[in-house]
Amino acid sequence: MLKTARTPIGGGRHRLEFANGATAETDLVIGADGVWSRVRPLVSDAEPEYSGVAFLDVRYDDADHRHPAIAELVGNGHLFARGDDGNAIIAQRNSNGVIRGYVAMRAEAGWAARSGVRVDDLPALRTHLLERFAGWSPTLLPFLTDSDGYVDRGIWFLPVPMAWEPTPGVTLLGDAAHVMGPFGGHGVNLALLDATELAHAIAEEPTLDAAIRTYEPVMQARAAGYAGPSNAATRRFFGVGEGAGEGVGEGSDTEPHTAPDTAAEHRRYLEGAERYRRASRPA
Length: 283
Description:
By secondary structure, this protein is α+β, with helices and mostly antiparallel strands. It is built from nine helices and ten strands.
């Protein structure tokens, strides 16, 4: 695990220090290490802002046999359920009989510790969730109690737009560069596209510095276009913070406190992918 990358040694090179005491010197450091990136401070002093929303990542393995009630509700697509209390259940059919989802809550940062609950203490956690979702339909409560595991994922935002001056020997991609709200599902797709475009720039430009200068402005502008609407949609869906009662940006079909229109999102993805392919083809 990287401990720090704060040691420039000249010529765009950096010395990396790892938690096990090992060190390395490199011509290029690529921060692909998420919201709490240890590389980001080399290019920016921006800090993530807590959204006011916490997700518990849940999963139901072999759902059709082990969790039939959940499987029937989710069907072959998505399920969104939101209460006026700022809580929500979001689930999606995956491959190999797995249903993945989130138990989502309007909550303070560190909600579990504040409540005296450990996420790995399953009986206590499930009791807490049932109390928190009191009044919800009994048909939805198995989403709270029957997960095959729970992972606490607070939702954090970086500033929009997130940009910095090019720094020799350092760049960022994915959540390290532009962590945003989950509505729209843009994060992982942008990370893959960032990595692809950075690789092409490194292969095609004469120097690493030129590659960074080619890659970063395009990546930053693209991410800002998705982060603003995604963050606003997150705030609106859960009724938190700035933008909770405002629009979520051009092209959104989402009204206040309703589930996103996933079919419309899919159409926009296809249209955007075709525009990207056309723009990327040689003249």
